[in-house]
Write a structure and sequence with these properties.
alpha+beta, Double-stranded beta-helix, eight-stranded mixed beta sheet, 16 strands, binds fe (ii) ion
Amino acid sequence: MSTITVTPIAGSLGAELRGVDLRTMDNHAWAQVHQAFLDHKVIAIRDQDLGAQDMMDVGARFGEPNHYPFVKGLDGFPFLFDVIKEPSEKRNFGGGWHSDTTYLKTPPMATLLYALETPPKGGDTLYCDMVAAYESLSERMKQLLGGLNGVFSAGLKNSGGRSLHHAQIGAMKVTAGETADTYEAVHPVVRTIEETGQKAIYCSKVHTTHFEGMTGDESHPLIEWLVAHATRPEFTCRVSWKPGTLTVWDNRRTMHNAINDYQGLRRHMRRLTSGPTVPA
Ligand SMILES: [Fe+2]
């Protein structure tokens, strides 16, 4: 029987896990990891040594792999891709508050991000709790949001479109640049989490262009306010990476923001998204 230590890293969400080797974990250990994921929404699992196949195996515990349309996968592992920022690059991947690939019809339940090389300082990731943000709303606002669907688009990011954005991140192998801006999906702005019954706000400035049936001008003030509300400090946590840290976050109940504060330094992560789910 393994003993896994689960230590919360902030008041609202996030925990650090130690004392588990994900390569050899048995079903009992997995049950503890999964429970920590359900309890804390973001889990930073320290001191791992994961190859590509190991990461696929861990991801399979969370669900089927999701395809990421805009970056070429690793040779032999099309669902895995490396997120690299070279010392010479200025822009980073994953900046701005968002949940992953919400412009897909079936966005991933979980994202797994594994640190291979981290800068000596900086490069943390912020997370926010979309359940706590929802629960703190007035009843009238909850009713209002409960009647809305959001239109989510891949083309919104960085105003020049996603293809342009990715073209400026030189170390990553970009694919499908021509069609990147055509991915779009409609999802409820309040979604219910199957396992917990919790409700969460599902909306971001990075992907949500407008609310269905409303204009962009009508939608933007509320989108802006929801993101400002959800990212209040008391709804956030912050993961500081070390090589060997695997962080798994729940895209249904959180947003994240990769901090770009390590100019001139190299950061190399590996990503997998798992559990394609229709938001409801
Ligand atoms: Fe992301």
